[in-house]
Structures
1.
Amino acid sequence: MSLLEKLKKSSRTAGAEILSESKFFSEKEMTTTSVPMINVALSGSTKGGISSGLTVLAGPSKHFKTSFALLMAGAYMKKHKDAVLMFYDSEFGSPQSYFESFGIDTTRVLHTPVTNIEELKFDLVHQLTEIDRKDKVIVVIDSIGNIASKKEIEDAENMKSVADMTRAKALKGLFRMITPFLTLKDIPLLAVNHTYQTQEMFSKAVVSGGTGVMYSANDVWIIGRRQDKTGTEVQGYHFIINIEKSRFVKEKSKIPISVSWDGGIEKWSGLLDLALETGYVVKPKNGWYMAMNPATKEELSGNLRAAQTMTEEFWTNIFDKTDFEKAIEKRYKVAHVSMLEELRTKDETLTKEVVEDEDS
């Protein structure tokens, strides 16, 4: 028996495993959604998607945060016919029809109302300890941005108006406790959150809830929006997913997603601007678009209006006949290069600069 096998056998931790054989790395699952640019925001690739761990969707009110969460949850439940959605609700702003509009079978949703952070913590930690890795479960919390601490409620009952200094600590404790379970049991958790503006001269949006949320999250989105108008009439919104933190996507990336009143999330939104920038779509004349293979200069479509490009046929043609997917990954995906090679290259560059300085 090798020393490594001996140490593995004597370990008192059930999950101890040789790294190259560890299921916590080799069996990490990704669930692809129906919207390519949502997959890009989650993984840096249209073929990727949501995986285990904490994903925080932050932004002001009415920024489609819950809808994005339910879109992902719906994709997960569609992939796993026996999956269960645990929906922790502190806002009660999502009627049953809202779930159904994202294809979620409400008979497989455990709706758990919570009134404070401690109540959420006790129930969620207990549920996670009872779940096996083979169980297919996805968790949505709506929201951590609007949930009070137990002390806040007790102060209100006792007519105390003192500021609550325990809320951020309580949230940090919650995520510190559940983070290992999410990875060990391969469970995605989507937490809706709020943002606030800093008081600097040039203010910026910051995720609420303290540092615990940022430390524990695999992915943090800050969602912005602008109106989609025809004349003075609002047709919907153009959302921008700002990647504040990610293990797969380059931070500070901006992912555009459009939502209309009539059709909901526009499946192919965000791709046209990116294809124009990278040469996979060209504009023969103003207002017209044509699919193109930039490597061969082959025309892949006739001249089309912008609305006519929002079809599966148009984009499938581009993805199948070009390396557009590679261009997307190069633009957004975090590259996993050899750290030793990177350090060696930097050292060589520094040595070269020193030699050049001495020669001069």
2.
Amino acid sequence: LRLIARRTWRFFETFVTATDHMLPPDNFQEDPVPVVAHRTSPTNLGLYLLSVVSARDFGWIGTTEAIKRLEATLATMDGLARFRGHFYNWYDTRDLRPLDPPYISSVDSGNLAGHLIALANACQEWRTLPVEEGLRLAGIEDALELLGDEANLLRDGPRTQTVTWHQFDDARIRLAGDLRRAPVDGGARLVALGTQAETLADIARALATERGDDAGADMVFWAEAVRGSIETHRRDLDQSTQALNSAQARLAVLEASARATALAMEFDFLLD
């Protein structure tokens, strides 16, 4: 289930971070041609916010990265047109206008209200429960396992001239072994893991490039995800006391904002 969820998180990593407003698109069409649906709904917004919470709680990203993503999306949401506290059912993710005809949905509003309350509770919990190192390492290992799955799909391709699958396997197995050693608190371990991840990503890119097609794109993505997960956790551990205090304050603001946005929705006029 963790790996299925990790693949789902890839959708948000790919499409949300590529937008100016940090809003999730409703869907991505693969066939007959790739098309991103540049619209979003209250349910989409709530699910993205909870996906960030899940990514942090699974150890795929650090707390600092989660805070930055949540702040960006909630700031955009704060500027969206609303009706009696309710978000309209569809917005254009490029210019943020409500799509015609503008209307609200009690179902979508209810979904978002529940998601915002869950988000507020998560932010409250994060202020008292820091990420344990075992969870960080498990989150990194998820991406490493998916990297191995994608690599296995490419082994029957053409041979490369500069690197070999043996070098790739050796680097991946060594990194996996170091991840599974007994957790030790501190950032020194992540520095060493980061160096190994850089090497592994370089090998993956070389293997994909020499194929001369797009088949290796998924393998490269997961190699970068391993490196990225390590880096985001390093940023958390390298924070100064001042930065830690700032993170606590930012979480308090996120908690208050999420809860206030949920409670601002007036549901009484929708009930006959």
